[in-house]
Amino acid sequence: MTTEASTDAATAFVPGHITGFFSTHPADTPVESGSRGAGITLTHGVDVCVAEGTGTTLNGEHVSVEPVDRVLDMLAIDVAVTAETPLPLGAGFGVSGALSLGTALAANAAFDCGRSENELISIAHNAEVESGTGLGDVVSQARGGVPIRLSPGAPGYGLLDGIPAPSQIEYCTFGELSTESVLSGDTTRLTNAGETALETLIERPTLDRLMTCSQQFAREAGLLTSEVAAAIEAVDAVGGSAAMAMLGQTVFALGTGLSDAGYEPSVCRTHATGASLRLRE
Amino acid sequence: MTTEASTDAATAFVPGHITGFFSTHPADTPVESGSRGAGITLTHGVDVCVAEGTGTTLNGEHVSVEPVDRVLDMLAIDVAVTAETPLPLGAGFGVSGALSLGTALAANAAFDCGRSENELISIAHNAEVESGTGLGDVVSQARGGVPIRLSPGAPGYGLLDGIPAPSQIEYCTFGELSTESVLSGDTTRLTNAGETALETLIERPTLDRLMTCSQQFAREAGLLTSEVAAAIEAVDAVGGSAAMAMLGQTVFALGTGLSDAGYEPSVCRTHATGASLRLRE
């Protein structure tokens, strides 16, 4: 097997991404489709190594990831994808988007495909949209920071802004929630709540307002589970600020909110940068 | 005096930015004005600390920086700006743009101005354009990586892409070159050469092509000085790739190009991220 030492191997790091609130915006083409909303990228993310070979492994286990296969189809190459992440799966951290974007970036570098960053982001975004696995993770993960999705779609279509405020982030996960099942249902109520939250955030783009908008969205969209609601209340009771990750049974808090409330969270930070390739030595 | 320990202080890091080629695009408003072109952001940059007080210092010396004053005017605050950088001044590293953008980001954080990242980038971009000190550094420094300016202007107007290829970068500076004096002269020849270079790069956005397009631009625009031309030739003679920084008497090379040619360059890397605030502990 080839390894990172091979000249035909490259590794990309893609930050995790938690969405606090969103609205869905389907369109005729994948590049125009997407979501509006806001969230947080994390220093906890996914390392994606691409080398000669076939098949995808995630944390040492063989997996089948539809958007990764779609990315490789669009680049017209067949390679081995080896990914590692400390993030929980299916719990609202954008692991699927990270695998797609990391595969696009690393495959382009390893096999000299000659695509630009916007082209690779578009390929990964389209793969996610067509697989039904995500609408806004890829563009957010390509940007980094605390991204606001002002308009939906791939680069050249969607417009992003950001909240200029780095922070420590804590998170706890109580279980999975299927993105596909929520997005394939009636999203009218959710989208109305998301549009209202975005209007409120844009008036004053701060972390505090991101959290209050996200809390209200989770309630109005009817997505709160009892464990998640209890954790958000517990953080609030100790003067902290927490919200639910869309879409997962996950609570995230600013600073030391979850620790202060007696939970044992994973601890990371907002990630200053978007997805990037590792410099080959 | 207040220090970084004050709650009303914040520090931003802004990467240096070398432009390889460009075309100028004046417009009726500063947000629409700018340049097209491509370049490289650097891990060598400017740390900008904003705190209560007045006046600007750079590497310990009091300085007057018109775009910094304009940024503070636009934010309607008066603060002390303390900046440190290892980069040479007036030599094509975007120090002026870095000071403007760093001041905007840090002042917003320290004094709770509630602006979004796009708003702060626009403020710094406008300050540079109105001061005549730069056209494309701020948007490139906000983005990071190896930025391609597809269309001119501030966020919402200009469109950026990037070359997905991190690299070690070496640079040597032989003296200053005034951005104002070049930009205030006849830029027709320069802009024609820049437009041709951009078309060629977009066909295949790789680092190698960025360097060859930049070399050709410097020749066609008539900006090469003898020391710069000699260094580019010397790097070429040992199989490396170097070009001239716009606008400065500076040569930059991929990998170990300048060392291999017998120069004693400063060594850094492409910077994965755009400008960012330091996380306050």
UniProtKB/TrEMBL annotation, chains A, B:
GO function term, MF aspect, one: ATP binding
Name assigned to this protein: Pantoate kinase
Biological pathway: Cofactor biosynthesis; coenzyme A biosynthesis
Recorded coiled-coil stretches: none
UniProt catalytic activity: (R)-pantoate + ATP = (R)-4-phosphopantoate + ADP + H(+)
One GO BP annotation of this record: coenzyme A biosynthetic process
Annotated organism of origin: Natronocalculus amylovorans
Keyword Transferase: yes
One matching Pfam family: GHMP_kinases_N
Keywords in alphabetical order: ATP-binding, Coenzyme A biosynthesis, Kinase, Nucleotide-binding, Transferase
Domain GHMP kinase N-terminal: 79-145
Annotated signal sequence range: none
Enzyme class per UniProt: transferase
Family named by the database record: Belongs to the GHMP kinase family. PoK subfamily.
InterPro entries for this protein: GHMP_kinase_N_dom (IPR006204), PoK (IPR012043), Ribosomal_Su5_D2-typ_SF (IPR020568), Ribsml_uS5_D2-typ_fold_subgr (IPR014721)
Organism ancestry: Archaea, Methanobacteriati, Methanobacteriota, Stenosarchaea group, Halobacteria
